[in-house]
Amino acid sequence: MTQKRFAHCQRTSAMAVKLAEQNGGDVLRAKIGGLVHDYAKQIPDADFIQAIHDHHLPDDLLHYGNAIWHGIVGVYFIEDELGLHDPAILQAVQEHTTGSPEMPLLAQIIYMADFIEPGRSFPGVEKARAITAKNLQAGVLFQLSHELTYLVEKQEPIYPLTFTSYNAWVKRISQTTQAKKAE
Ligand SMILES: [Fe+2]
Ligand SMILES: [Fe+2]
């Protein structure tokens, strides 16, 4: 990968360690997950298409591109080329492009670390950092909302799992808020 992307992976790794420490997560897995999360980002489309067929993944994936593939399909390259088979790390990498309804703690950490690492400068990043510092799960919902808004504004297709994740996290966060109010 390019030096620029590798630097992003290093910053994501450091941020993941921080988030793991703050949220009682697995620090070593966070460190490794951050480092490998974009491993497949620069793999050519033709290789992804081949991997989708080889691993009998859903055909609808073929309608999307690298932005979705490097997470969901990228894990197969990480397993084959790096020999990394840790299920929790692979799940976190797999879910870092779309989120998922369940997203275990490590997946939340990698998802947020990727979004708010110090090299990020998109409009709204400060808000994302502030929310995540207070509440990791609220950060996840913020990123999912941000992602959907961004894609709609650019009139780009949205992978259905991103919608499903968003709906699940809206419910999850509103339940947490209601539970807190009831206390
Ligand atoms: Fe990525
Ligand atoms: Fe990334």
From TrEMBL:
Domain HD/PDEase stretches: 1-128
Gene Ontology molecular-function annotations: bis(5'-nucleosyl)-tetraphosphatase (symmetrical) activity; metal ion binding; nucleotide binding
Transmembrane segments: none
Protein name listed in UniProt: bis(5'-nucleosyl)-tetraphosphatase (symmetrical)
Reactions the enzyme catalyzes: P(1),P(4)-bis(5'-adenosyl) tetraphosphate + H2O = 2 ADP + 2 H(+)
Enzyme Commission number(s) from the entry: 3.6.1.41
Keywords in alphabetical order: Hydrolase, Iron, Metal-binding, Nucleotide-binding
Protein species of origin: Schleiferilactobacillus perolens DSM 12744
UniProt cross-references to SUPFAM superfamilies, sorted A to Z: HD-domain/PDEase-like (SSF109604)
